[in-house]
Amino acid sequence: MDTENKREERRSSFQVESILDLNSNNVWSLNEFEIAELWEAEKKEGDFTQSEEKLLNTIRLAFEVVHYDESDKREKARYENSSWAHFSHNHAERGTVAIRRKNICRITDLSYENVRHITAATLLELIDRNFGGGWNSISLQIRDIIESGFDISTTQLPASRIHAPGGTLEKKVEQGYEVLEIQKGMWVEAIFAKKKDPVEKLRFESPFYKMESDGDGLSDEDAVDLPDDVDDENDEDENDEESFFSNYSEEAAVKAEDEEGFPIEDAD
Q1: What residues pair up with 157 in beta bridges, in sequence order?
Q2: Which of 44, 60, 168, 231 is the most exposed place for a label (fewest CB within 10 A)?
């Protein structure tokens, strides 16, 4: 009962019940010290050696992960401070793990994983730091990463018109877009960004025939009957094939040709 209460407390505070529940989505919602606490708590409750490497790879999506030797005073001083959280492996001989969240300081720090976990305002701040070159100054690869998580649109207008009432900028802001204005002489480039909604993957299942989990077809009682017109189409195909061969004769296919291969009537 005590173990269940502890799990419930961790779930209410971190929204993750156990370190074993960590995945590529919820890892972004935790900080390094919450992860370390979940790890150590789970280690006290049982051995999860076989899951260690998988969990560390998940943690690496959002955090720097290093291994260090606690007996080395220099390494201990480097990692055992307020910047890093640390926890131990299930086997002591593997040493200690230190983690801290990866900082996203430049647009080149963006990836397909982390771009979905920043705000539109943060994104535009990163773009603004990119030497003020505007949207087209960003490499195609980084633009593709950005557009995987955000709706992006741009416009260039004279500085005197950019804030015109009822103009593009005003309309975009009303639609929920964040805007970055980059001065380019007498013109202004406006970059609009809005986070995309998560897309749910649809799964298609044929209504005509389903396979059981063991790979065998469904029984006659469970099988779905095909529509009548499907059987009719098959019957028509068979009838057409039979009628073709019944009416086919060798004489009908023979054409008189001369030695050059042309029809005789054209040879003259």
Answers
A1: 188
A2: 44
Q: Which residues contact 40 (CB under 8 A, 6 or more apart)?
A: 87, 88
Q: Which of 72-76, 120-124, 252-256 has the highest mean pLDDT?
A: 120-124
**β pairing state of 96-101 and 187-195:** unpaired
Whole-number Å distance between alpha carbons of 193 and 156 = 15
Pair type for strands 187-195 and 178-184: antiparallel
Instruction: Give the CA diameter of the chain.
Output: 105
Q: How far, in Å, CA of 231 to CA of 237, rounded?
A: 10
What type of residue sits at position 148?
S
Alpha carbon of residue 152 to chain centroid: 18
In DSSP terms, 154 is beta-bridged to 191
Kindly compute the dihedral angle of the four CA atoms of residues 131, 167, 145, 139, in this order, to the nearest 10 degrees.
-40
54-58, 130-134, 259-263: which has the minimum mean pLDDT? 259-263
Burial 186-197 (b: 16+ CB within 10 A, else e): eebbbbbbbbee
Mean per-residue pLDDT, 182-208:
79
The side-by-side arrangement of strands in the sheet containing 85-88 is 63-68, 96-101, 85-88
- Alpha-carbon gap, residue 263 to 256, rounded angstroms: 6
What digits encode the pLDDT tens for the residues 137-171?
Answer: 999 999 999 999 999 999 999 998 999 999 999 99
